[in-house]
Design goal:
This is Elongation factor 1-gamma. This protein is an alpha+beta fold. It has helices at about 20-30, 40-70, 75-100, 110-125, 130-135, 140-150, 155, 225-235, 245-250, 270-285, 320-325, 340-355, and strands at about 10, 15-20, 255-265, 295-300, 305-315, 330-335, 355-360, 360-370. Helix 3 (about 75-100) packs across helix 6 (about 140-150).
Amino acid sequence: FASGKIPAFESKDGFTLFEGSAIARYIASLSPNSGLLGTSPTDAALVDQWVSYIDSEVLSKGFSLYGLLHGQFPYNKPYETFLREKIHDGLTVLNTHLTHNTFFLRTNRISLADITAAAVSNVLFETFLGPDDRAKYPGIQRLLETVANQPKLKDVFGTIKYADAPLQYVPPKKEKPAAAATPAAPKVPKEKKPEKDDDDDEPLVPAEPKAKNPLDDLPKSAFNLEDWKRAYSNMDTRGPGGSLEWFYEKFDPEGFSIWRVDFKYNEELTQTFMSSNQIGGFFNRLEASKKYLFGSVGVLGEANNSRIAGAFILRGKDYKPVLDAAPDWESYEYKQIDLSNPEDKAFFEAALAWDLEIDGKKWADGKNFK
């Protein structure tokens, strides 16, 4: 199998497939009278539409949320909020359709789209969505219970288990390292010092002192950037008690400044995941400025119609000493944000909350530098 991943399928005659949706569609097509793909090319297209939507807008976000909450990559509270909102948006679309329709097709028969929606919602209802969340999607819950109780599917779904509370991130406990026993150092016989060679009296060349960053000479600030990074990572961004509230209480505009960042060559952007990787590369090249910088930058829009924008909080009043650590820093435009300006403040807050929208382009993906 080319992907080297599961699920994978191999028929008796050696035909192979990978990707769950492709496998499911192929198996459904082997029994045209089952109605799993509907009864017409139009029905089949609608099934493909809904399965694709569920995979991209709900299931993929669920996988990311699962990995985040289980520590498969560094935890980030704004990213958790972003993923939960995206899952909610996807489920709302499905629920709206199912509020007016028994199934996804008007044939009033269970299709592959219904089975896919039921399987995905079964996982979500069992893990991420508590009673209050599930109450928002009565159409999906009805579909799940209808599909899961079909005689031919009951053994596959088993008993539906609903979560009493949504799955939450639990920071790992810090374990104290066990003190290792220090072995006794073996006695080393003293060596006789060689007599000094009068001919070898050239002075040693002192090591060149490490260049000091001029940012370290700035007056001490009461705003602790590392404390801010922790607050941002562990708090909701907006709302009472959120990280923005913390920021406004602590921020020192004399010792730090805030900058809007925009990529100069948005017309060259194609796939949003590639643009997100570009941001990640830019951040990697800024690693030398980590102690002076925090950033929240995202991709807005969709494939072949997107832009990169965001905000930086950095030490000092000038962005160049902090950002020129990255060779490609000049590929971006920078404009200082004035928090007393309502438009600037709204941009800053939206960039940090990952709900920034510019010219109709909504936040699709993002990364934080911290």
